[in-house]
Design goal:
It contains seven helices and five strands, in the order H-H-H-H-H-E-E-H-E-E-E-H. It is of the alpha+beta class and 212 residues long.
């Protein structure tokens, strides 16, 4: 039984990340394909079913959109389009919120998470890893006494969901690890530990500096 368990777990550890990756990509592909209208399906255009045609069409459209709007004229047209959307009450709230997040996460050189930190959550005495995303907005900061920072605490093993917290800077402990290493640590539920480093003599409190 020990022999079977050893090789079964080895095979599981090989297949699990591969299957999870394929599942996420397949879900994304299904979402993109669902956006293709019926009149652009291969049956409507050619009279036959062509597997993967809708996905290829979406990828081509995304690429051409980036190609068109990457130049000066395209950016001017995009600015006019966004100005138009900003006059539609519900649409402007959703569109601009999603766009800001997308620009932060996916833009070249973008830095959604600035540093990995240690915070007490969900109560004092329990510690978890979070990421600095900036500082509270002026409206929130006006009601917060002292110096606060904005923290994103991801869930495990899925870091795309989590909690947004505003904590005093003195309650945040800066970690000597990169954001990528911290994400791996969270996704693995603490199994994939970061390389060992010398423990600091005193708590490494987040230094005061501009995070805007």
């Amino acid at each position: 039984m020990r022999f079977l368990k050893r090789y079964f777990m080895t095979g599981l550890l090989i297949w699990l990340p591969l299957v999870a990756t394929i599942w996420v990509l397949a879900m994304l592909a299904r979402t993109l394909v669902s956006l293709v209208p019926a009149f652009l399906s291969p049956e409507a255009l050619f009279g036959v079913d062509i597997p993967g045609f809708e996905l290829a069409l979406v990828l081509v459209v995304v690429f051409l959109t980036g190609l068109v709007f990457a130049n000066f004229i395209g950016r001017a047209l995009l600015a006019r389009w966004e100005a138009l959307l900003s006059h539609i009450p519900l649409v402007r709230s959703i569109y601009h919120s999603v766009k800001q997040v997308g620009d932060t996460v996916f833009a070249p050189g973008g830095q959604a998470f600035r540093e990995a930190v240690l915070v007490q959550y969900p109560r004092e005495g329990l510690w978890t890893i979070g990421f600095i995303t900036g500082v509270p907005c002026e409206q929130a900061a006006a009601h917060l006494p002292g110096d606060y920072v904005s923290i994103y605490v991801p869930t495990t093993p899925n870091p795309t969901s989590g909690f947004f917290l505003m904590l005093p800077r003195t309650d945040v402990r800066l970690l000597d690890m990169s954001v990528e290493t911290a994400l791996k640590y969270i996704i693995s539920m603490g199994v994939v530990a970061p390389p060992s480093v010398a423990a600091p003599a005193s708590p490494d409190i987040l230094p005061t500096r501009s995070l805007t």
